Amino acid sequence: MANPWINNTATQKIVIVGAGGFGREVASHIRDINTYAVDHGLPEQWEILGFIDDGEPDLELCRRFGLDHLGGSDAFASLPEGTSYVIAIGNGAVRRLIAERADAAGLSAATLVHPDTTIGMLVTLGEGTVVCPGARITCHIELGAHCQVHVNVEVGHDAVAHDFVSIFPLAAISGFVTLGEATTIGANSVINPGVTVGEGAYVASGAAVNKDAEPYTLVAGVPAKPKKSLR
Length: 231
Known about the structure:
Strand 1 (about 10-15), helix 1 (about 20-40) and strand 2 form a beta-alpha-beta unit.
């Protein structure tokens, strides 16, 4: 198989946590993964049981995707034994709380890699991480648990993203960059080589980050400058 993350030998059950826009994207990605697997002689990788969402999702739109809303996070305890989960919520701090609840209920976090990606040598992906179509992850890169690499993101050599990082569409992460836990990298932003973005920081869309960003700070602009504390 060209994609080592598509390797289930039997179909596994999975729930998508978050029934908003990204949840529906993940549902589409899973179906693409299933198609790829079947085309390469493997069974469908995932049977999607439905969405878990503590809010009030658009039920009609969920059903148009062929999926039901199974309830809030209290439904974790009633899922079939062996069910996996993936969290499709952009806020890393929220993902951390949900992961704690899901893990406590005995669920396993699924790592999902869309077949239309490029992933080079010596790349590690943590449990629960999602890599979306068009992502290019070069070599010697570590992505922690429950990270999100959105559509058409580029991650350069020797970069490290700690747990619960969100990298939104078209962002470019250069070589030797370090992203602290639960940082958010906005769409179409650029993190230049060797920069460290501190834990919980938020890089605004379109920013060009040339210097280290302090933890729990919003940075924006070209070049990026600190705008406010997020504590």
